[in-house]
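Notes on consecutive records. When two proteins share a document, each keeps its own sequence and its own token line. Never mix them. Below: protein one.
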Amino acid sequence: MSESYRQWETWGAQLVPLDFAHCSTEEAEKVLHRCSIIYLEGGNPSYLAYALKESGCVPLIRAIVKAGNILCFGSSAGSMVIGKSLWPAWFAKGRFAPRRGEASYEGLGFVGEVIVPHPTRGQERVIKALRPFDRRLRPLRDGEIYAVGERSYSAVPRRLRGSRPSQ
């Protein structure tokens, strides 16, 4: 079990891990309709996007999120997948490039920006340089949360780590 799962449990969350690569759409639908949060964990962003798309669950997740019945967010690769593109994965020197048969660099598009988790100084310079060309890049530094509301985007320092969220 990952550190993030243990953290959620300390906050009193009841977790139902769901491996999209190895479950049917029907199985996922039963689980997702009982949940209030979908949390996509880190790893390889190309594989995560591929597994979600191959499972056939993306339209289901989109519909549930759009209806406002559930929150969907992720950390690291999970946050990247929620964005419109995974192309910043090339910053990792091909480590996370799509393998033969896997999805392209297309994200799920739940948010209109391209999330760049754990940006290095060099990556931040590239992000800054690309802004005039209307690249919607959003650096997500360690310890930050990127919240998306109906009309608002914000990066908020995460100061509550290890504490229980307020009710």
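Protein two starts on the next line and is unrelated to protein one.
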Amino acid sequence: MAAGVVVLMVATVVGSVQATAQEDTSTDVVEVCVAARRLPDGRIETGLQRRSEGGDCGERVLPRRRFMPVVAEARRWLVTSSVTLGGNELRVAARRLAGGSVEFAVQRRLDEDDSWSARLRPQRRFLPAGSAAGRWLSSSPVDALAAPPGSVLESAQVVSFYGHPGVPAMGVLGGGFPSEVADEITTWAAYYDRLNGPRDVIAAFHLITGVAQQYATSDGTWLGRLSAERIAEYVEVARERGMLVFLDNQIGWSDPLTEVKLLEPFLREPFVHMALDPEFATKRQGERPGLVIGSVTAAEVNEVQRYLAELVQEEGIPPKILMVHQFSAHMLRDRDAVEDVDGVDLSIDMDGFGGVAIKVAGYEAYAVRQPSEYPGFKLFFKYDTPVMTPEQVQGLDRAPDLIIYQ
């Protein structure tokens, strides 16, 4: 069953009340909607609605502190004061996005330590940038008592297109505008969805953001980095369509953690994940990228995992996927020392091209074995002989959780 596209909030016509010290009867499920409207002066007013037995979002309950200022830093979460619904103390979290739309979530005060829960995101949760002033819109319902979000890979496969914008030779992602590439990925994802039974399939961009260079760069890293503005184009298309994004770095003469930290604003998004390509990490050999096959160490991978886990904890988001490409044993040094880090799903993918037998052997040697938790498999439209069909991929002894097309 294919994962759905995230859509915008819808209009509602209901009354509003100021929050009071009301006491509702607690239940095991408290479904609420976020209500929001854009004011003529540009501020955003927010409230909460309790879902009725009939399924509608009910009367708006307005927190005392409920206005998002006109000038609010993009991607920074702001919160309202709390209201009580269903015997639970709740608040709205909201943030402006780069394109002018506003994203909403709900948080519940936790009894055990008086802190707040992870942000619970309704499926329909965006106030559009061009919404009419004064018109209330409502999110889809979300259970305010729900457990923190789990790994996307527990219930879904991922099908992605790999590459660099405007450079088709580096992968199929570079063959069109983000929206065009998204359409094509979605078609491939739907094909896999017809083969994998009840499991979902999610389409993804696999975007090379740090590209190894043939010539030394001024900072000594031998890397060309994609601009934040260009990365944001893919992130916003993915947000609109309910896709994932993998930010891929070829490391060069830099180090993995330094490069990952440069991408932090994007990695704080729940649908943006990370990939490392040891092939071009050649500083240890003292050779420029491309002349020899590079490597990363278990210690470097562990550093990145711990850093991603901190972001997961801070943001209250699902586990991050960290993908490490491998097609040769030495590309991941001290492999047995790679740690199992809570909050991070480690995927090692078979990144080599060639005939079916050698690809399957590499998949079993590198992607299926520990410490890889979710095996990945890359297919090369140009270099595989032949390109395995989706039926062949799904027919592997262990079907890959992540499928990448280059």
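For the record: The chain has two domains: 10-143, 152-405.
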